[in-house]
Hints:
Blueprint: E1 2-3, E2 6-7, H1 8-34, H2 38-66
Antiparallel strand pairs: 1-2
Amino acid sequence: MVFYGYNVIDILINWFPMLLLIGVWIFFLRRMGMGGGRYMSQYQRDYMAMAQRQTEILERIAVALEK
């Protein structure tokens, strides 16, 4: 099949690298957190654990200062 003097296979071969880049980009977007991906949730768990430790330390300091 020919479109405006170009073979369809040639068009697909020329556009393949661009479509591949777009596909890889979408893959990484979805994996890194658009849908609450595994890595983002791990980061959030680590952050919440750190915040909890800081809160506990600050509470101990406040209790010690009240004495």
